[in-house]
Amino acid sequence: MENPDKETLDNWHKDPNNWKWGIFYYNPKDTRGMVPKKIEWMGWTINFANTKAVLLFFGMTLFFIFVVTLITNHQS
């Protein structure tokens, strides 16, 4: 689905089948990389069905670990 309407997006968001373990959003039909969390006022999460979003998430995580490791080793 190229550009789903707001009603479709809301239905996807409310569908419990799109939430793994209640916290991870996984919907292959949804092309968005970032989606509102299940409790929307808590911020955003990634769509784990979107390969680009997952790669970006892991890339940022690895970069963060690398920076922390550099800082920790430099202080020794």
From TrEMBL:
<keyword id="KW-1133">Transmembrane helix</keyword>
<keyword id="KW-0812">Transmembrane</keyword>
<keyword id="KW-0472">Membrane</keyword>
<feature type="transmembrane region" description="Helical">
    <location>
        <begin position="53"/>
        <end position="72"/>
    </location>
</feature>
<dbReference type="Pfam" id="PF19124">
    <property type="entry name" value="DUF5808"/>
</dbReference>
<protein>
    <recommendedName>
        <fullName>DUF5808 domain-containing protein</fullName>
    </recommendedName>
</protein>
<dbReference type="InterPro" id="IPR043831">
    <property type="entry name" value="DUF5808"/>
</dbReference>
<feature type="domain" description="DUF5808">
    <location>
        <begin position="28"/>
        <end position="53"/>
    </location>
</feature>
